[in-house]
Design goal:
The complex is a heterodimer of chains A (269) and B (258).
Chain A lengths: L1 H9 L4 E9 L5 E10 L4 E5 L6 H9 L6 E6 L2 E2 L7 E4 L11 H11 L4 H14 L15 H14 L4 E5 L7 H18 L2 E6 L2 H7 L2 E5 L6 E6 L14 H21 L6
Parallel strand pairs in A: 3-8, 3-9, 6-7, 7-8
Antiparallel strand pairs in A: 1-2, 1-4, 4-5, 9-10
Chain B lengths: L8 H24 L11 H14 L2 H32 L1 H14 L8 H8 L3 H25 L3 H9 L4 H37 L6 H10 L3 H29 L7
Helix pairs in contact in B: 2-10, 3-4, 3-6, 3-8, 3-9, 4-6, 5-6, 6-8, 7-8, 8-9, 8-10, 9-10
The chains are: A alpha/beta (269), B mainly alpha (258).
Chain lengths: 269, 258
């Protein structure tokens, strides 16, 4: 509830998405006009079946795709193209294979023209945060998938973005690694209090990570419901077995199931 | 033998050397056994002997030096121009749209067919030799480099953008390093082709070089010398190839990790 007071006090949301839609060249509607506002320190998870346009929405916030309608504003300034103020972690492994872990984490800092000692100080801090001290001079291909995503997270955080965009960042990882990564990210978020927009199709992940879960409908995508997650921080994995969690999961499972059925053509529109 | 099963490094080396041995043995059997007349094909022993004479008494080392100089010279000029143009074409699609159709056409023009024209323009001096190698390698290099740069993983480019990279940073810090190993590999391959062009250029109108020695030997029916010349080209090719590969491995250690 404290968060709501804060938001009311400051007034302006960190990220304001207004009537943003995307229609592809062929006339396929990927995303219907969508509104979403993200407050400072929000951790919003966007949950939806594959092909619902949730990644498209995230990519438009990142400035990697252009909306065909509506507007996106970060701190009141309209988004026009990608920038360092919106960090992103992708589902695919996007570390630069020719750079070491340390150099990867320094990439954005170097682009800002920061002196090398400062770059290294920041990079070492975040490499430590993601638990990869000692791996600074490894190349990405020498790391496991989970480790690579941790470096990608450190790389995005080192840049100190206003908002962190995560596009199914743990989607390619095995179940156990994914759970560890969720706790790690949550721990970092509780420390750093970043504003996060997190796309996933995993219901447990959406509830465990988010303050709010935004459910999207099957294509053409639109926001179907926006539910607060009534779990306290710091969160512990044991919360996944509490009645509150189970209740929300049951509700979301129903919502998503309906959408998947619709997408598969099993229910009339 | 199982399909695609790897072979131990020691066995690989032994097998590789073994075929050379088989090759020379068969050759020796045919020539020394009298199955092939001497004026058509010299035997390996005579070949090595006259090779030695060529090197020690007829200044063949100078010919080798000239040929190497021409290949390296022509190739360096081609690479110095082809790498920047190829990178620009790979990175910027309008530049590619402007040059690509012409370059695609030009690379099918046989370099050797230009030799008469080049002799007319540049005489039979060094400029003509360099020009043949340039024509033979430049267009190939440009196209292959443009493709390498253009094939850079899009998600890496996007990641760089979200880290605040500007267009210039994308080219210098993503496109270039990501395609560098492939560019180096292209250079290695095309250098091999440059070797075939230089010999052709030297066969027609030259006063020095390995190709020149080969045409001279033809007039004397000295098949031993011709074969020695060809062998020397092959050896130099093999050595430069190995050197280039080792150099690339050293330069791009990250590309070796599997």
């Amino acid at each position: 509830m404290k968060r709501d007071d804060l938001a009311l006090g400051s007034g302006m949301p960190t990220l304001q998405i207004r009537a943003v839609g995307k229609t592809f060249g062929g006339g396929t509607v990927a995303l219907q006009a969508t509104d979403l506002s993200v407050q400072e320190n929000d951790f919003i998870t966007i949950l939806g079946p594959s092909g619902c346009g949730k990644s498209t929405l995230l990519r438009m916030v990142a400035g990697l795709d252009t909306p065909t309608g509506g507007s996106i504003a970060l701190d009141g300034r309209p988004v026009a193209g990608p920038g360092a103020d919106r960090g992103m972690v992708f589902q695919s492994y996007t570390l630069f294979p020719w750079l070491t872990v340390l150099q990867n984490v320094c990439f954005g800092l170097r682009e800002k023209g920061m002196p090398l000692p400062e770059q290294h100080a920041i990079a070492h801090r975040f490499i430590g945060k993601v638990g990869l001290k000692g791996f600074e001079n490894h190349f990405p291909k020498q790391l496991s998938g989970g480790m690579q995503q941790r470096v990608a997270l450190a790389r995005a955080l080192a840049n100190d973005p206003r908002i962190l965009l995560m596009d199914e960042p743990f989607g390619a990882l095995d179940h156990q690694t994914r759970e560890l990564m969720q706790e790690l990210l949550l721990g970092i978020w509780e420390d750093e209090r970043k504003t996060v927009l997190f796309v996933t199709h995993d219901i447990d992940e959406a509830i465990f990570m988010g303050n709010r879960v935004v459910v999207m409908s099957a294509r053409p995508g639109r926001i179907k419901c926006d539910l607060p997650v009534p779990l306290q921080h710091p969160r512990h994995y044991s919360m996944k077995t509490t009645p509150v969690f189970a209740e929300l999961k049951a509700r979301l499972t129903e919502e998503i199931r309906m959408e998947v059925q619709r997408a598969a053509g099993m229910v009339a529109h | 033998m199982k399909p695609l099963a790897p072979v131990a490094p020691g066995t690989r080396a032994t097998l590789g050397v073994a075929f050379f041995a088989v090759f020379f043995l068969v050759w020796a059997a045919f020539t020394l056994g009298g199955l092939v007349p001497k004026q058509f094909l010299a035997d390996p022993l005579t070949m090595f002997k006259s090779g030695w004479t060529l090197l020690t008494q007829y200044g063949f080392l100078h010919d080798i030096g000239m040929t190497v100089w021409r290949v390296v010279g022509g190739f360096l000029i081609a690479a110095a121009l082809a790498v920047p143009l190829g990178v620009l074409m790979g990175a910027y699609k309008p530049v590619e749209a402007f040059f690509e159709p012409f370059v695609s056409f030009a690379r099918y023009l046989p370099a050797s067919a230009f030799i008469p024209l080049l002799i007319l323009w540049a005489g039979i001096g060094e400029a003509q030799k360099l020009a043949v190698i340039f024509i033979g390698s430049f267009f190939q290099l440009v196209l292959m480099i443009a493709v390498s740069v253009g094939n850079t993983r899009r998600d890496l480019v996007e990641a760089a953008y979200t880290l605040g990279a500007l267009d210039r940073g994308i080219v210098t810090r993503v496109l270039l390093p990501s395609s560098a190993p492939e560019i180096a590999e292209t250079l290695r391959m095309v250098l091999g082709w440059a070797w075939t062009y230089v010999i052709v250029a030297e066969l027609i109108g030259a006063s020095s070089g390995i190709g020149h020695m080969i045409t001279d030997s033809q007039a004397l029916l000295a098949t031993d010398q011709i074969i020695f010349g060809i062998l020397v080209i092959g050896l130099i090719g093999l050595v430069t190839d190995f050197a280039f590969k080792a150099f690339n491995r050293k330069l791009f250690p990250w590309a070796q990790i599997r």
